[in-house]
Design goal:
alpha/beta, 7 helices, disordered C terminus, Metallo-beta-lactamase, Chain A, six-stranded mixed sheet, Rossmann fold
Amino acid sequence: MKISADSGGVKLEADGRKIGLDTREECDLNFISHAHSDHVSRSVKRVVCSDGTASIVAGRYGLEFRRERPEGFELVPSGHILGSTALLIHSDSGRILYTGDFCTRDRLFIKGFRPPKAEVLILETTFGSQKYVFPDTKQTIKESLSWMSSQLNSGRSVTALGYSLGKAQLLCAMVEDLGFPVYVHGAVLKMNSLYSHLGVELHGFVPYTEAKAKGYLSNGPYVMVSPQTLPVNTMNARFTGWAMDGMTGADAAFPLSDHAGFDELLQTVRKVNPNIVLTTHGFSENFARILGEEGYRAIPLASHQMRLSEFT
């Protein structure tokens, strides 16, 4: 079995098939872990993904794939965004777990990743540095709502900044009970509609363009949910794991992340209990080194192409 990093994802050759894991290149089978644009390719046709991911991809990009359900492929909810999954492959060489982007923390309507056991773990390590240990999610939400309430009650409007698919829907669910009007960027409104179709009710939010055209923005303080700053006079709060770095270009920043933090990555490896860990993305080399110090066989995949027979 051969594994290599490819086109932003991972390419796996096992049991006589070439399998693309979040890659741009068409393979015998292509797994799409979730519907963010950097994981979706227009060039692939035979796809393994969840119903939720297929629905969002169709609604967001207008793409419909030939969905495959091959024997030995198990989708495991990964807790990143709605519809996101890890992939557990039952192969002749043992169980292979590819996490894709994942998060083990429960966040409002998103349940965290519960990893299964596997002999080979291909691990996303975006935040694989010791400085990215995220605080308790409920406390982060409480602190951010307190900050926004303080601004709103002082007559200042607030823009909550987060990417339009995934983070913005969490923000909409967070702010709708603050007691102030909530307006949303058009891209957020579209994703809210897709989430509502999949059972997460996010109806009733007024689009920014309508609020501006009808003069709502001058009626008093409000909350805007947007993936980008808008030409309005608001206090800006950014919601991202990179808030741990303290450099976000906003008035406030809160470390609400849809990725696993450093400690969660370690916990995931311990729960999976693999024979070998292949790290990919972010701090892959740093995290592989730390796993090596803990006694695991760990290799950063970005700079390697390997046959697993070399390690078994």
